[in-house]
């Protein structure tokens, strides 16, 4: 957030001591913020149990190979080694994943670099690692299929086949044509969620033959289901307890080590702990889908879009994971937040021997956003129109139809967002500010030279859907308890840093008027709340908390209302005091409770959606949210180094529930988008993950993050959402890379068809 | 545990346990140890040896302790003395790394991307190596980096002898990002007005810094040393191209006589080196 941006509509006033803000709309700071910044917050890697053993996982060094034999004898004989397990030691189901296509341990075949093959438990982490290295695996190395375009013709890499999903979306008249046609081919790289805290977990065996898993899971109930199936146990014998989550912008945990952890605990009868190294972390968890996109846009002479044709190829890696969802989003949002009467989008998610792709914020939507916005720039250039003006002529609004045939019923203030970022004044040029304040591309001690720097301005409009799509049963359950004037929320929605726990406190404060609200730790003894992604916890879990709180409120007020012969609506609770509308009655919550405990449990389940049909049509999404970003970049046109100077963001948020957290989420999202635009790409030549460390994989630092100017937050309540609030985290991630690429295009005149933008793509020939 | 307080104590400790590994800032070494790639039998800590954590003057040269941290070298008093090395030190990594990482460590780990190395090569610095029994020998830094001479058992880099040139020096690096990062290419360039020479070394494009000697001599002969070190702008550009072509030569023709072009990434690297060398010389002469 800019220190001195007069245009920022919201001032975050941090609370002074004694005057803690509360309730909805207040900038309540996260309860964990202090502990996290001071380093005292307990994360999964801090777990400890008496007599614990350490686990290590042996992973495949090859992207594709047949396993001829696995010899664990040496490893077993090593002193200190307590158990060595392979696929033969899985008592239950040996596979997992949405379509059950992924083995817990590879058996017979390995399909990607880093696939787990065996696991070891030993009395010291080094012993465990050495024992894992002492397992002899004989491989018959095969030729990996790493080019998603070649996988169609390749022999099946998996019994389930190489095409995971194909959506041929057809909408409108295939023969429609525009006067102006632009084409492009775009490639999007492999972004890794790279959580700062690597995966860690502890499994503790129970005397009843069950096991407890302590992990930083973001969906404990799904993980319990997977674990129970794998261990061949009833679900009630497996408990997942969620520990502190050190960063989650994707499905956080890698079942590839969570599942072995419990197996080892059951096998040895001892607690078993594993802390993944950075390398294992990069090898284990899912990445963003690398994508190849081919587009053709037709427009009339005024620049109105007539038809969009596209082919979208998602590299899913070796296993399906959530590729089907990513493809649905990519195909459905392939035209972006624009009105396109005729759309023909063919999408495939295919299997390769690359590391598996999965859920990362803005999956599918980010890739197409970069491509359709590049097309809009191309079209503007061809028509001689201002890029922002061309966009303005085509923007989507409430009541328009998506290419999936779904009518947009929620607020879609796209025009308002674009106008907001267009109208804000541009940041000053370096030449207008003192030399000491210059930060040129290449950084403060870099090689940047003012004479070679060109400034560019670009626009991006992005959209994502909220909640699971295509008929996913999105439901969450929450319980609210009040005792002695203190409220407690029990809900299995995991606080991943997205601010759910703070929001839950605010909701209960708002509804029940009590100040002190605790949010209980999450485990699978609570009813399921589902995964923390696509803004679902603000919506469904927040909705469930609100309903439960309202039920408690009714229980609390009913006896009083009855006693005074008035309805509960005429009573209000503020700061722990219950007063009637006329002020006659006044008592405290504690007195009204009279030593009783009040409990209520409620569910929130949004209206159902339907799967996309065989031509990609259907009401697949519960809600949509939009964002406009104007990027200003400086490019050193000789070295091709890019510095993002400023990103002006306008976003459709429905309703601001907590301005402090909301702006932090937008800034975090935009910064992740900057990474996707400029530096983040996990390279896997010939299927092998190169540089799986934070030196080789460059996450944005404070110096890379631009000035983020939140110029407008449009509060048009979404009537179907609880509180009218929309999800805020994903859409800035989706939009920022497209806006940055657009700005680099203006600065250099180069096409910029690839993300992340490589320096050689931002060099202007003959510049020197 | 006792940490050696003098260079000779450290050398003795290394000689006593031949498998021991010396550790100064530990920014490279400890990362390898933590990653399980290196399991030294013993470590000899160099952090308490005060004689190598400062510098002194010695007949026209500066004798730099190998234990000087990048943070220390980046400060203005050091920059007044050896501006090129100070610039490289400031460009190396984030502050946490600069606070710990040392000059000697940068030389000993000899990573191709080591930021101080091209400057030391351009300065034609000499290493003073301490050996068992109080022995001292001198080795040009380029010999060690090229593997022509190695550190023997029980030997430590004690000091780095650098000429004081009293003329502009420049270090430039390209990283592809705004935040701290490893160099994709770097250039250290120093002027030596007494010898009327320009010395330049290119880092990160090869396992060791490369010296384009012909380009240096060519451009030095064009500089008007008497007259404010003037140089025509075309010569600046020519110097950049010359340096780049020397460091990244054209591909050898195939046996059948066909000449293939470098892949785009290599061509970009070459352009980067040319731009860096041109800018470095331009800044040194301005």
UniProtKB/TrEMBL annotation, chain A:
<dbReference type="InterPro" id="IPR046867">
    <property type="entry name" value="AldOxase/xan_DH_MoCoBD2"/>
</dbReference>
<dbReference type="Pfam" id="PF02738">
    <property type="entry name" value="MoCoBD_1"/>
</dbReference>
<dbReference type="Pfam" id="PF01315">
    <property type="entry name" value="Ald_Xan_dh_C"/>
</dbReference>
<dbReference type="Pfam" id="PF20256">
    <property type="entry name" value="MoCoBD_2"/>
</dbReference>
<feature type="domain" description="Aldehyde oxidase/xanthine dehydrogenase a/b hammerhead">
    <location>
        <begin position="38"/>
        <end position="143"/>
    </location>
</feature>
<dbReference type="InterPro" id="IPR037165">
    <property type="entry name" value="AldOxase/xan_DH_Mopterin-bd_sf"/>
</dbReference>
<dbReference type="InterPro" id="IPR036856">
    <property type="entry name" value="Ald_Oxase/Xan_DH_a/b_sf"/>
</dbReference>
<dbReference type="InterPro" id="IPR008274">
    <property type="entry name" value="AldOxase/xan_DH_MoCoBD1"/>
</dbReference>
<protein>
    <submittedName>
        <fullName>Molybdopterin-dependent oxidoreductase</fullName>
    </submittedName>
</protein>
<dbReference type="InterPro" id="IPR000674">
    <property type="entry name" value="Ald_Oxase/Xan_DH_a/b"/>
</dbReference>
<dbReference type="InterPro" id="IPR016208">
    <property type="entry name" value="Ald_Oxase/xanthine_DH-like"/>
</dbReference>
């Amino acid at each position: 957030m800019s220190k001195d941006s007069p245009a920022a509509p919201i001032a975050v006033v941090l609370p002074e001591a004694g005057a803690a803000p509360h309730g909805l709309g207040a900038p309540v700071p996260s309860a964990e913020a202090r502990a996290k910044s001071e380093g005292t917050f307990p994360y999964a890697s801090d777990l400890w149990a008496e007599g614990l053993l350490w686990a290590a996982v042996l992973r495949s060094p090859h992207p594709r190979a047949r396993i001829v034999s696995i010899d664990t004898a040496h490893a077993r004989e090593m002193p200190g080694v307590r158990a060595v397990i392979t696929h033969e030691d899985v008592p239950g189901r040996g596979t997992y994943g949405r379509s059950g296509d992924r083995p817990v341990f590879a058996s017979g075949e390995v399909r990607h670099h880093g696939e787990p093959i065996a696991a070891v438990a030993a009395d010291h982490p080094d012993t465990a690692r050495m024992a894992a290295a002492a397992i002899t695996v004989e491989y018959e190395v095969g030729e990996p299929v790493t080019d998603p375009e070649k996988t169609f013709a390749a022999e099946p890499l998996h019994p389930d086949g190489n095409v995971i999903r194909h959506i041929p979306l057809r909408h409108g008249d295939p023969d429609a044509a525009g006067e102006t046609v632009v084409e492009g081919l775009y490639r999007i790289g492999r972004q890794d969620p790279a959580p700062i805290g690597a995966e860690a977990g502890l499994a503790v065996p129970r005397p009843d033959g069950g096991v407890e898993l302590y992990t930083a899971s973001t969906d404990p109930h799904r993980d319990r289901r997977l674990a129970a199936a794998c261990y061949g146990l009833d679900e009630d014998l497996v408990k997942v307890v969620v520990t502190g989550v050190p960063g989650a912008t994707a499905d956080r945990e890698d079942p590839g080590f969570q599942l072995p952890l419990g197996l080892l605990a059951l096998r040895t009868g001892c607690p078993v702990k594993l802390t993944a190294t950075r390398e294992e972390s990069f090898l284990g968890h899912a990445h963003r889908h690398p994508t190849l996109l081919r587009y053709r846009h037709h427009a009339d002479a005024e620049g109105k879009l007539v038809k969009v044709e596209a082919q979208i190829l998602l590299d899913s890696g070796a296993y399906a994971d959530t590729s089907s969802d990513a493809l649905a989003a990519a195909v459905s949002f392939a035209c972006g937040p624009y009105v396109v009467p005729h759309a023909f989008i063919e999408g495939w998610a295919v299997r390769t021997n690359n590391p598996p792709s999965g859920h990362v914020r803005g999956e599918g939507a980010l890739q197409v956003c970069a491509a359709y916005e590049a097309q809009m720039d191309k079209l503007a250039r061809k028509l001689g129109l201002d890029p922002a003006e061309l966009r303005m002529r085509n923007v989507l609004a409430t009541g328009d139809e998506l290419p999936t045939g779904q009518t947009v019923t929620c607020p879609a203030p796209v025009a308002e967002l674009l106008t907001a970022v267009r109208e804000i004044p541009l940041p000053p040029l370096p030449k207008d500010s003192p030399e000491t304040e210059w930060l040129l591309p290449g950084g403060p001690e870099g090689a940047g030279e003012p004479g070679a720097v060109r400034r560019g301005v670009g626009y991006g409009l992005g959209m994502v859907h909220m909640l699971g799509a295509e008929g996913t049963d999105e439901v969450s359950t929450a319980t609210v308890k009040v005792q002695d004037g203190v409220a407690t929320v029990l809900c299995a929605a995991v606080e991943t840093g997205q601010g759910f726990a703070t929001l839950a406190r605010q909701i209960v404060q708002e509804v029940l008027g009590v100040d002190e609200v605790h949010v209980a730790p999450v485990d699978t003894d609570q009813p399921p709340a589902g995964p923390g992604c696509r803004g679902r916890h603000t919506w469904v879990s927040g909705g469930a908390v609100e309903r439960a709180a309202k039920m408690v409120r009714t229980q609390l007020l009913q006896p009083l209302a009855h006693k005074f012969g008035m309805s509960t609506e005429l009573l209000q609770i503020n700061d722990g005091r219950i007063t009637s509308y006329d002020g006659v009655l006044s008592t405290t919550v504690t007195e009204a409770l009279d030593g009783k405990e009040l409990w209520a449990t409620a569910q929130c389940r949004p209206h159902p959606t339907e799967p996309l049909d065989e031509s990609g049509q259907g009401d697949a999404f519960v809600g949509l949210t939009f964002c406009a970003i104007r990027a200003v970049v400086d490019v050193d046109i000789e070295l091709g180094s890019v510095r993002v100077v400023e990103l002006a963001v306008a976003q459709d948020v429905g309703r601001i529930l907590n301005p402090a957290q909301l702006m932090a989420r937008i800034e975090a999202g935009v910064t992740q988008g900057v990474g996707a635009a400029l530096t983040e790409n996990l390279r896997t030549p010939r299927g092998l993950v190169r540089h799986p460390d934070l030196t080789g994989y460059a996450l944005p630092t404070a110096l890379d993050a631009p000035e983020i100017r939140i110029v407008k937050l449009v509060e048009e309540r979404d009537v179907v959402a609880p509180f009218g609030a929309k999800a805020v985290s994903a859409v800035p991630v989706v939009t920022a890379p497209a806006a940055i690429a657009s700005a680099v295009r203006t600065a250099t005149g180069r096409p910029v068809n690839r993300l992340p933008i490589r320096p050689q793509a931002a060099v202007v020939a003959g510049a020197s | 545990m006792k940490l050696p307080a003098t260079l000779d104590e450290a050398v003795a400790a290394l000689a006593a346990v031949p498998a021991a590994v010396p550790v100064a800032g530990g920014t490279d070494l400890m990362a390898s140890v933590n990653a399980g790639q290196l399991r030294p039998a013993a470590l000899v800590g160099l952090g308490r040896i005060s004689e190598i954590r400062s510098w002194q003057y010695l007949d026209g040269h500066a004798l730099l302790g190998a234990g000087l941290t990048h943070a220390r070298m980046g400060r203005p008093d050091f920059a007044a003395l050896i501006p090129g090395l100070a610039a490289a030190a400031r460009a190396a990594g984030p502050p946490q790394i600069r606070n710990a990482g040392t000059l000697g460590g940068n030389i000993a780990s000899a990573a191709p991307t080591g930021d101080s190395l091209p400057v030391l090569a351009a300065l034609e610095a000499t290493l003073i190596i301490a050996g068992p029994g109080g022995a001292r020998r001198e080795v040009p830094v380029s010999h060690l980096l090229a593997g022509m001479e190695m550190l023997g058992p029980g030997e430590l880099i004690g000091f780095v002898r650098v000429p004081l040139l009293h003329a502009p020096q420049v270090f430039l690096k390209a990283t592809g990002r705004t935040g701290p990062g490893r160099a994709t290419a770097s250039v250290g360039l120093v002027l030596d007005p007494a010898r009327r020479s320009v010395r330049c070394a290119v880092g990160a494009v090869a396992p060791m810094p490369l010296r384009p000697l012909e380009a240096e001599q060519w451009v030095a002969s064009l500089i008007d040393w008497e007259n404010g070190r003037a140089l025509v702008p075309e010569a600046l550009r020519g110097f950049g191209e010359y340096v780049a072509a020397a460091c990244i030569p054209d591909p050898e023709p195939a046996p059948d006589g066909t000449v293939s072009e470098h892949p785009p990434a290599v061509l970009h690297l070459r352009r980067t080196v040319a731009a860096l060398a041109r800018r470095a010389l331009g800044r040194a002469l301005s």
